[in-house]
Specification:
Layout (H helix, E strand, L loop, with lengths): L19 E7 L2 E6 L4 E3 L1 H8 L3 H10 L7 H12 L9 E5 L2 E7 H14 L5 H13 L1 H9 L9 H13 L7 E3 H4 L1 H9 L10 H15 L3 H4 L3 E2 L19 E4 L3 H26 L5 H10 L10
Antiparallel strand pairs: 1-2, 2-3, 3-5, 4-5, 6-8, 7-8
InterPro entries: BstA-like_C (IPR058744)
Protein name: BstA-like C-terminal domain-containing protein
Organism: Allorhizobium borbori
């Protein structure tokens, strides 16, 4: 992220007394929960749900509070006040590992989504869909369910291990490339929700990475998308795999992201995941009933026929 992509942070936006206890990126939407239980989206996550480029929201936050107030900001601020919240702060700036992270709370997310869904000049079906999803499920319940946060403040071991791995990978991949681990977060989350103890002994990204690498070479995708690269990846220190840190898995050109996602949905989830989960069950790493539940979670949803 370049300097121009980073929002200006004022004193009243700093929340050093809070910490991020759990976070994840699901389908490209960054989200998490702060130490006081506040659910949030990242700026990029909110932008994705709104169907706009993240730099649009960065500019909005940088202009926030300037006089005179511009039309878009004023409308969003009015929507925030209509919910009974303070409209002077767009995000909370929270320090984590020495870096400031920008956490946008529920009321700001919903007001911004409402603006892009119903108030903006141009029609935005993506924002409308996102707004209705969050309005139906409730923002807090939606984020809690996605990241696996327990309202009593305790995070399960599997979630903590997932969180620790995500944190280590976050800034390890070079610009212009994607990692398999970051991309399959949307698979790992339902697995944990199904009761699979994803951690040191069940590492699904290795299975995905090996299958994808084989597909990459078999289909000679380097010719289409360019060379893949190795990057430095480390497991949390309490993982047995950490003894051989740093690992050097491959990351792939962003141009191949669409190809990967298509292959992942149609080939890995439908063909290889059942084999992987059943093999883990045979090894005693997961109960057969839980393996079956995890497999069922990824079966394509049937669309009811109209009568």
């Amino acid at each position: 992220m370049s300097f121009d992509d980073i929002p200006n942070t004022t004193h009243n936006q700093l929340s050093f007394d809070l910490e991020i206890v759990v976070e994840a990126e699901i389908d490209g939407v960054g989200m998490g929960v702060l130490g006081d239980g506040t659910p949030f989206l990242t700026i990029r996550g909110l932008a994705r749900m709104c169907g706009v480029d993240h730099t649009t929201l960065v500019k909005l936050t940088n202009d926030w509070g300037q006089s005179p107030t511009k039309g878009r900001e004023q409308k969003i601020r009015d929507l925030i006040k209509a919910q009974g919240f303070d409209d002077t702060v767009f995000f909370h700036a929270v320090k984590k590992s020495g870096t400031i992270h920008h956490a946008i709370p529920a009321h700001v997310c919903m007001a911004t989504l409402e603006y892009y869904a119903f108030e903006a000049v141009s029609e935005n079906s993506h924002a409308i869909k996102s707004y209705r999803t969050l309005a139906k499920k409730g923002f807090t319940d939606f984020v809690y369910a996605q990241v696996g946060y327990n309202p009593d403040g305790k995070v399960s071991l599997a979630w903590q291990q997932f969180h620790d791995r995500v944190s280590l990978v976050a800034n390890a991949v070079p610009t212009g490339f994607f990692s398999v681990y970051q991309e399959i977060a949307g698979m790992i989350v339902p697995m944990i929700n199904a009761g699979v103890d994803v951690g040191p002994h069940i590492v699904p990204d290795i299975s995905v990475g090996q299958r994808w690498a084989k597909h990459w070479k078999t289909e000679n995708l380097e010719v289409l998308y360019g060379e893949r690269k190795q990057y430095m990846h480390e497991y949390p220190v309490y993982f047995p795999q950490a003894l051989s840190n740093p690992q050097t898995p491959y990351c792939y050109p962003d141009e191949a992201l669409g190809e990967f996602r298509k292959w992942f949905r149609k080939t890995y989830l439908e063909v290889h995941l059942p084999d992987y989960m059943n093999s883990q069950a045979k090894l005693g790493k997961v109960k057969p009933a839980i393996a079956t539940k995890a497999i069922e979670a990824f079966k394509p949803k049937k669309i009811a026929s109209k009568k």
